[in-house]
Amino acid sequence: MFYLIASAEGFSRLFNLFRYITFRTGAAAITALLIGLIFGPRFIGWMRIHQHKGQPIRSDGPKTHLAKVGTPTMGGLMILIAVSISLLLWMDFYDRYVWACIAVMLGFGVIGFIDDYDKVTQNSARGVSGKVRLLWEFALAFFACYLILKDGNTQLYLPFYNGPVIDLGWFYYPFAAFVIVGTANSVNLTDGLDGLATMPVIIASLAFFVISYVVGNAVFAHYLGIPHVPGAGELTILTGAIIGAGFAFLWFNAPPAAIFMGDTGSLALGGSLGTIAVATHHEIVLGIVGGLFVAEALSVIIQVGFYKRFKRRVFRMAPLHHHFEQLGWSEPTVVIRFWIISFALALLGLATLKLR
């Protein structure tokens, strides 16, 4: 809204400040933070009344989790509402990259909401069929790729290397869709402890705030030897909104959590990060910045595959955070140490911008 006002004839001098991406990014973060903090308590109270038993707790999980029975879920709605309102106030309505991210964020949020609703109403941890979820997720991911790749840039870039490696052509579409869907479900698997997924998402968003800004700036992109994507700088507005909404949610999600993010939030936020990575052509760097999410997903794949083949488990329990709980680590210990790992990986990912 402010971007349109700033562009209007006769208001350009008065609202010139709103033309700066950095200003609008900070404003988006503050707006989302305030919305989350102000309306969070009412939202949580409303969810407690209407969900009754709250999110179902796995009976085969760590026994300490049984104390969480009755905690409401679908807290991702808080994040989506705060981010959406903030974007409507501060985004450039003519930027297709932001709209692609919004389509994935809200679409994946709807998928997660249906899954959470099914779990709550059925009092079961199963939810919607995995195949059905993946079908809709890939459909949305391909649509986002269509919006992003109108410029025809299907080249793959690697960290620590200056310039494109190979032009994937039409194969870039399934590759990019896999990045989006894979990131969404990896974040979903990470969201198993109070605050565990929230802070790494914030950290990854901070990293991609920097990446989006330099990719969208021709001078910085040329200096660093990374792809220049005109218009991608607007994605910093989205990262700012996610950071602000994420911190607001973490206020209520910190141990002991007053509400869980649920699939509603984890799928939406993970999908958004994946889409930002595709739009900025930093898909491989996302694997570094979001290395914690990758490790959580791989632990599940390895556990399932190894058990089916050898009838033995590699980890005491998957995803990976449960393995450390079974080793005797307390929940806060696991969460804080995983946060530290996420921060270190984000710094490593940002280092690839210069080390080429």
Automatic annotation (TrEMBL):
Keywords: Cell cycle, Cell division, Cell membrane, Cell shape, Cell wall biogenesis/degradation, Magnesium, Membrane, Metal-binding, Peptidoglycan synthesis, Transferase, Transmembrane, Transmembrane helix
Compartments where found: Cell membrane; Membrane
Pathway: Cell wall biogenesis; peptidoglycan biosynthesis
Major subcellular site: membrane
EC number: 2.7.8.13
InterPro entries tied to this protein: Glycosyl_transferase_4 (IPR000715), PNAcMuramoyl-5peptid_Trfase (IPR003524), PNAcMuramoyl-5peptid_Trfase_CS (IPR018480)
GO cellular component, one term: plasma membrane
NCBIfam families recorded: mraY
Protein name from the UniProt record: Phospho-N-acetylmuramoyl-pentapeptide-transferase
